[in-house]
């Protein structure tokens, strides 16, 4: 090399010497970085199935993917469809990293949406409301678990060719993930109530400031559960202000004007569009998070899942007229009204994210003795699960 020097001292003006030192420095930096990257990659391969495998032998990657560092075989979950537009069911990534990021207690699973993995997958998840669910997968081996995933009430399911489950596939499923409490994995429509560590403040409420009685926000004007008929009947006996598409006032869900309802109104109608077993939506949570009394209308056994004395259930009254007269009593009784909020001292609500059901699925797949079959999933989901005739019965008895 031209800048090789005999005496090892660098001095001003000896550029060769400085270049040599600089080059040596560069080489060392490059070596350190490459070794670091190599180990980082090894680590990723081990813990994260989603690592870009374009440059590595696919066979080995598959083995690496399915072995965690501790030697437990990763369970492979194939998402046959997305969940509406969510391709990851709340997990945000394919591979194992979604389970780790979400801090699943058991995270030795790997997520994919590659349908070619059907032959090896331990579980195959079908969201039975996705337009791309068909053709439904065919079971590849007896151990494979087919998962039925759904969060819509039965009247909104299987209603046309695209969304029906063909006869041949009705007996395919082994595990259910829905809002129904008799599912194998439950994601309650209503979130969860958690006991406070320390008593919280009960909101102070002045009824005098609330000049209006009942508020209802709605955008579906005609529903399977016929809530619109009930509320129409109710409004003959007590004032009901109707916002949204089917009403005469402008404020739809999500508008900031919603937030002010508990300044003006005493009661908030949280009516589901269908009266079906355990079916309840975020309207109830919304009401509970405000300081307003929810009037609930739906098929949930509210007594079991809501805080005591936190709501008024339409089904507890023989007719809309009786409900109205009860509401009027409460509306002028400050003490009685405030009692609806005493639960806030001891409980708070938490949302149950979709991802947490995927954590539970991962856990279940590690249970070696899990074995279940649903002989007819459509029947399980629809038979005796709705009571949408509730209102017609009142009609026939002359109570509406
Ligand atoms: C509600 O909004 C629509 C369209 O923006 C408007 O035509 C209508 O007059 C509004 N109604 C009320 C009560 O403000
Ligand atoms: C899943 O269901 C199928 C079809 O009913 C059944 O043959 C299979 O044994 C079940 N597998 C498990 C693990 O439950």
Q: Which tags fit this structure?
A:
disordered N terminus, six-stranded parallel beta sheet, 400 residues, Rossmann fold, binds 2-acetamido-2-deoxy-beta-D-glucopyranose, 13 strands, alpha/beta
Task: Give an overview in words.
There is one protein chain. With 400 residues, the protein is an alpha/beta fold. It has three domains: 3-44; 75-187 and 373-380, no CATH class; 192-350, Rossmann fold, CATH 3.40.50. 28% of the residues lie in helices and 14% in strands. It has helices spanning 15-47, 58-66, 97-101, 227-234, 261-264, 282-289, 302-305, 320-331, 334-339, 354-365, 377-382, 390-396, and strands at residues 75-79, 109-112, 123-127, 145-149, 175-178, 185-186, 192-195, 212-217, 240-243, 265-271, 293-297, 312-313, 347-350. Strand 8, helix 4 (227-234) and strand 9 form a beta-alpha-beta unit. Helix 4 crosses helix 8 (320-331). Mean pLDDT is 85; it is low at 1-18 and 44-65. The structure holds 2-acetamido-2-deoxy-beta-D-glucopyranose (2 copies). The site of one 2-acetamido-2-deoxy-beta-D-glucopyranose has 9 residues, from loops. One 2-acetamido-2-deoxy-beta-D-glucopyranose binds at residues 248-250.
């Amino acid at each position: 090399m031209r800048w090789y020097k005999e005496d090892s001292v660098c001095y001003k003006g000896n550029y060769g010497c400085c270049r040599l030192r600089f080059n040596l420095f560069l080489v060392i930096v490059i070596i350190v970085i490459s070794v670091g990257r190599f180990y980082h990659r090894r680590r990723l391969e081990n813990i994260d199935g989603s690592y870009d495998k374009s440059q590595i032998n696919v066979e080995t990657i598959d083995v690496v993917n399915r072995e965690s560092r501790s030697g437990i075989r990763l369970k492979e979950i194939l998402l046959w469809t997305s969940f509406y537009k969510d391709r990851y069911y709340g997990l945000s990534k394919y591979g194992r990293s979604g389970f780790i990021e979400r801090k699943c207690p058991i995270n030795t699973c790997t997520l994919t949406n590659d349908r070619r993995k059907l032959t090896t997958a331990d579980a195959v998840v079908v969201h039975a409301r996705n337009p791309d669910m068909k053709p439904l997968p065919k079971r590849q081996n007896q151990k494979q678990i087919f998962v039925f995933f759904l969060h819509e009430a039965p009247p909104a399911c299987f209603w046309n060719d695209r969304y029906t489950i063909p006869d041949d596939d009705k007996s395919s499923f082994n595990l259910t993930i829905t809002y129904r409490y008799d599912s194998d994995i439950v994601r309650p429509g209503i979130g969860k109530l958690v006991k406070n560590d320390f008593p919280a403040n009960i909101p102070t409420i002045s009824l005098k400031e609330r000049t209006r009685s009942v508020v209802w926000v709605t955008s579906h004007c005609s529903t399977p559960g016929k809530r619109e008929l009930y509320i129409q009947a109710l409004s003959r006996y007590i004032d009901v202000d109707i916002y949204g598409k089917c009403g005469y006032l402008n404020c739809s869900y999500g508008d900031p004007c919603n937030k002010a309802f508990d300044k003006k109104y005493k009661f908030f109608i949280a009516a589901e569009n269908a009266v079906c077993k355990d079916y309840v939506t975020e309207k109830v949570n919304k009401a509970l998070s405000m300081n307003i009394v929810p009037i609930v209308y739906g098929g949930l056994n509210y007594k079991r899942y809501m805080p005591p004395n936190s709501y008024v259930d339409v089904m507890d009254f023989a007719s809309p007229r009786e409900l109205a007269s009860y509401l009027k009593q409460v509306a002028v009784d400050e003490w009685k009204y405030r009692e609806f909020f005493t639960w806030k001292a001891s409980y708070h609500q938490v949302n149950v994210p979709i991802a947490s059901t995927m954590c539970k699925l991962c856990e279940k797949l590690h249970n070696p003795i899990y074995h279940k079959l649903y002989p007819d999933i459509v029947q399980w989901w629809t038979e005796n699960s709705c009571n949408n005739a509730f209102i017609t019965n009142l009609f026939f008895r002359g109570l509406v």
